[in-house]
């Protein structure tokens, strides 16, 4: 037998201590009466509630409370192995953290808009695992997990200044996402080894890419049957890029080495590249709207994907037997409340 809530067992000390005190009290009283004279004679001179009945009532009350505490500690018996199954897909989200994502053509800015879109997506996940990649010139990664709260906090306070390398490398981010979904065999965890799950990559970016070859990365994903759905964020008109200090204080706008203001836009060229990334993997391209319509459409598309039952983990299931202690508890408490304190019946027969 085991107890699911073992912390409750500490409370047993109180009723057990009371019961012990009452037993010791009876023993001490008998010794005191023996010193006064013959026990039967001394008891006959005492016209008051029977100390023995009061002690029995107290002991029954203490043991009844103790049994109730044991019942509240959730006693469990036996144990059988059961395999939990999860139904879902593996999703890796790659979010652009380049400085161009600070442009405010989408409110409050492109990056915060993307985070809002992402939160909307995570809120609709059920039984899926999600991995996160924050990228600029290099990547920061959060491994696949079904703990959505932990995933949401990963980049809640993250910004472009937290990235180890500046610039934008969409290809590197996609390659990192592919490696997360298809690691080397020795890196596979138990769940991945037991069954295949459908896989998908979601890319959120304004499309500006200065490093690498994102199309080559998309072709690698296509070779591994991993679709890439892309959410484009930004407007087609040029937008200045705000400049901030490390403490978040705004300091005007970004300038290049020649002192000219730097602008960014989700241009036709950028959108064409994002569409190519999606089309080469049988994915789809969406554009972020002010009403979250882009992410909603993407979620609906992902839901159409094949979902697979996989063995997630083994658990031991125990049978709850709290009633073994709850019923005796009620019986003892009933005795404690109905038992009289005076031995009226026996006294009448004696007379």
Q: What does this protein look like?
A:
The protein has 351 residues and is of the alpha/beta class. It folds into 2 domains: 2-74 and 322-350; 83-312, Rossmann fold, CATH 3.40.50.410. The protein contains 12 helices and 12 strands. The protein has helices at 13-36, 39-45, 51-72, 110-123, 148-154, 170-181, 190-194, 214-223, 268-279, 293-303, 323-338, 344-350, and strands at residues 2-3, 75-96, 129-135, 139-145, 198-205, 228-232, 239-240, 242-244, 250-253, 263-264, 285-287, 308-320. Strands 1, 2, 3, 4, 5, 6, 11 and 12 form an 8-stranded mixed beta sheet that branches. The protein has a two-stranded antiparallel sheet with strand order 7-10. Strands 8-9 form a two-stranded antiparallel sheet. Residues 185-194 and 345-351 have low confidence and may be disordered.
Sequence-ordered SSE layout with sheet pairings:
Blueprint: E1 2-3, H1 13-36, H2 39-45, H3 51-72, E2 75-96, H4 110-123, E3 129-135, E4 139-145, H5 148-154, H6 170-181, H7 190-194, E5 198-205, H8 214-223, E6 228-232, E7 239-240, E8 242-244, E9 250-253, E10 263-264, H9 268-279, E11 285-287, H10 293-303, E12 308-320, H11 323-338, H12 344-350
Parallel strand pairs: 2-3, 2-5, 5-6, 6-11
Antiparallel strand pairs: 1-2, 2-12, 3-4, 7-10, 8-9
Helix pairs in contact: 1-3, 3-11, 4-10, 6-8, 8-9
